Amino acid sequence: MTRMSPYKLLCIAYACLMFGGTVCGQTILLEKTAEYLKKNNLQSAREAIELAAKNEATKNEARTWYLKGFVFKELYKQNPAATENRETAVEALQKSLTLDSKKTYSAAVNTDLDYLHGTYYNEAIDLLNAKQFERALAGLQKFIAFRAKNKPDEFYSEALYHAGYASYSLGKKTEAKQYYEQALQKGYKSALLYDDLTQIYLSEQNTPKATQTIEAGRKMFPNDATLRTSEINMYLQLKKYVTAERMIEDYLKANPQDTDAMMVAGTIYRTICETDTTKQDVYFEKQKTLYKKILAKEPDNFMANYNLGVSYYNRAVPLLNDKAADLTITEFSKRVEYISTLILESKPYIEKAAQLSPQNVNSLKALSGIYHYLNEPEKLQQIQNKIKLLENK
Amino acid sequence: MKTLILNIYILLSSVFCFAHPPLRDNPGNLTYKIQSVYIYNFIKEIQWPSEYSEGNFIIGVFGDSDIEGELRSLAAVRTANNRKIVIKRYARVSEIEKDCHVLYLATNYYSELSGVIQKTRGTSTLVITHKEGAARFGSLVNFVTEKGKPRFEMNLTAFDKSRLKYTQQLKSVAISVD
């Protein structure tokens, strides 16, 4: 690529001055730009078009700004890191549109603008993947603003969803909700959209909207595990335990080998066990049966080991409530025996969990509690040392 | 145009179901809860001499122990035969009062046992420990763990000397030590 010499450029400018008039300015500077572009001499084209953009004769011509936009778009393509060229290109092209009353260049200008906004979108996706939400959102907003006027297609609705996600990640829930709702309205179809929007409605305690959204999502994506889990979570949050339990049990009837779903069922049983004192025994038994079933299939399943161990432990805790002091010493001693049985039952599962995931502080803490209860001081000391090490990391 | 790599998304909702269920109580507390309920039962099953029948019912805790919190919770809602239960904390042997009904010696302060025994000799203070073998060294009740189960030992000789009368129910669930 050859740059235009300062002398040559001076001559062109001088010629424009001498001849004055629009025709000369357009002919010389704009034609030169076009000529340099043909030769792929972008630097010279840039210098020529910048002069034209300042020249009285050409600065109000749509073609000038179209060419400027084109040159800077090409410069940006050549070096995408120089994003200021893209900004200049977009500004120039937009100015061209405002000056182009006869719409001579508008089709070409819009094609270039579409390309440039496409780069905002692509860049935003990379930024989202890199969790740079602020910059991603800025790019998406430009893309959305352009496409809203020109081409509200599937990428437009997808961009609305991504803008919602970026906003949500930035803690801007109101904006996130607006983007998500628009995406839904524009026909964007994604289980994640339904899921995220449901969470926002739930956080606003807008139960009817949350229910309506998750149900619509489940209807559209009946086999989506995330949505199923979310719907169950929602019913749990709304304390509709019977519905949550029915949903997961129906699913398990049809998919008896799905251990993830079994884990969800275990969580439901635990929640019921902890919240409804009249059903503690029943749901404790249900938890045990379920986790043992998972462990029969997957003995090294960390969560199943941990959850089963903790469910034994947690069953023991309410047995020592305030009313325990009303028992006679004989009755209380029997209760202590039962509690001890539960703790002893819990031990191998928590030990296994700690072995499967030695960096997991939760299981180590549970284990230290068990060793404390069982009065195993050496093991207790070992575990406490491990916890200290992990917590100081 | 590019599409998003969806799997990098942190799902906003599904985390809940797979989160670690928390332990419903600090595990160490179970031991102290059991001991505090046992102590409350001792109050019901033991009769102190008449000179201990006036005023508040005093439970002393010697040293730092999490049992103190459990005993305070219990004392807030319970009485000892219609007498207010007061929890006191002692840091030195000299602080132990004569009218202390129950004295719990924290495990880490076990080295103070002989001083405590000496100080409470001739009184009817129910000295309670939580240390293997402590009942043989003069404490009246000693919490132990037998095959993973919390139990308590009663030193019957020491009981006799302290003029504390206990019920058969209490003796039947204890491990008797002479």
Structure, explained:
The complex is a heterodimer of chains A (393) and B (178). Helix content of chain A is 79%, strand content 0%. Chain A is built from 19 helices and no strands. Chain A is elongated. The relative contact order of chain A is 0.04. The model of chain A is unreliable at 1-25 (pLDDT under 50). With 178 residues, chain B is an alpha/beta fold. In chain B, 31% of the residues lie in helices and 25% in strands. Chain B has six helices and ten strands, in the order ααββαβββαβββαβαβ. In chain B, the strands form two sheets. An eight-stranded mixed β-sheet of chain B has the order 3-4-2-5-6-7-8-10, sandwiched between helices. A two-stranded antiparallel sheet of chain B has the order 1-9. In chain B, helix 2 crosses helix 3. Mean pLDDT of chain B is 87; it is low at 4-19.
Chain-wise SSE layout:
The complex is a heterodimer of chains A (393) and B (178).
Chain A: H1 6-19, H2 22-38, H3 42-54, H4 62-78, H5 83-99, H6 106-129, H7 133-150, H8 154-169, H9 173-185, H10 191-203, H11 207-220, H12 225-237, H13 241-254, H14 259-275, H15 280-297, H16 302-316, H17 329-356, H18 361-373, H19 377-392
Helix pairs in contact in A: 1-2, 2-3, 2-4, 3-4, 4-5, 4-6, 5-6, 6-7, 7-8, 8-9, 9-10, 10-11, 10-12, 11-12, 12-13, 13-14, 14-15, 14-16, 15-16, 16-17, 17-18, 18-19
Chain B: H1 15-18, H2 27-45, E1 46-47, E2 57-62, H3 67-77, E3 79-80, E4 83-90, E5 102-105, H4 113-120, E6 126-129, E7 141-146, E8 149-155, H5 156-162, E9 165-166, H6 168-173, E10 175-177
Parallel strand pairs in B: 2-4, 2-5, 5-6, 6-7, 8-10
Antiparallel strand pairs in B: 1-9, 3-4, 7-8
Helix pairs in contact in B: 2-3
